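Our consortium's second objective concerns turning raw sequence data into structural hypotheses that experimental partners can test. To show how far this objective has progressed, the report includes one record in full. It was chosen at random from the queue rather than selected for favorable results. The single chain below, 173 residues long, was entered without modification.
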Amino acid sequence: MNDDSFESTSAVDLLTKKMDTVLTKLQMLDTIENRLDNLFKAMSKIEDTVAGLDKEVHNLKEKVNYTNHIIKELEDNVDFNDGEIADLKRDLKASQKSIDDLSTQLLYQEHYSRRENLMFMGIAEKNLMDGQGACQEPENTKDIVHKFMDRRNANFEPARQPLISKNSQRAEV
């Protein structure tokens, strides 16, 4: 019986050792399970963060696209305005040339009027309309001036004036 008791004690010891090993391994499995739970929680937080970052990236892409669209419209408007400004400058130059030409013509007409239409003071003008509204024959201005000058005892000789011909060259009359 001794042998049986020794064998049973040794079997119990062996079984106890195996049970201790199994318990130790189970404790290690509990530790591993806790670590895996912590890893899953950390992974879940990372996934939530990545999803938030994805939304932010998507929003930023939309904002960049909108900004690029606005920039394109502004560039188009600037190009259009540049064309309009060029047209207005061209029109302004043409208008300025027209104004200069008209000013030159006005000066020429004023000069011509002064040269061709002399006013003499002290000579009475004849009324060309008679009392009944009919027009009378105009007087000969040259004769009137000669008579006026004769009355003043002056010698009247028409002055020789240079005239401007159509070719813009001076010619003597």
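The partners drew two points from this record. The helical segments are 2-116, 141-151. The chain has a mean pLDDT of 81. Both points have been shared with the crystallography group to help prioritize constructs.
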